[in-house]
Amino acid sequence: MDQDNKKINLKSSISSKGKTVTKIVHFSKGRTKTFNGVITDSVMQSEFTRFETIDGRLVYVNPKNVDFFEVFEERNND
To answer: Where residue 62 falls among pLDDT bands split at 50, 70, 90?
Structure first.
């Protein structure tokens, strides 16, 4: 079995909020970063948390530097 076949999508629980969400990342040293238009089906968790946004950004977050995430449902969310 090759490496690609060993990957498992953990089906992030944020997908229950809709197809796209706003995600606020709270970093360990008190900084925050807000990401709008996060495509919930794109969230993958491994060494880094990875997700895509509707404007085409691919974001990787090192969870070692994060205290928590906040997730908000976006309006007009199909």
So the answer is: very high
Backbone φ and ψ for 47, nearest 5 degrees, come out as -60, -35
Among candidate residues 51, 61, 49, 46, the one with its CA nearest the CA of residue 19: 51
Angle subtended at Cα 26 by Cα 22 and Cα 32, rounded to the nearest 5 degrees: 75
In sequence order, what are the residues at sequence separation of 6 or more whose Cβ sits closer than 8 angstroms to the Cβ of residue 69?
23, 24, 25, 26
CATH 3.10.590 is the classification of domain 18-73? no
- The verdict on pTM exceeding 0.85 is no
What's the helix, strand, coil split of the chain in %, to 5?
20, 45, 35
Q: And the tokens for 18?
A: 């809709």
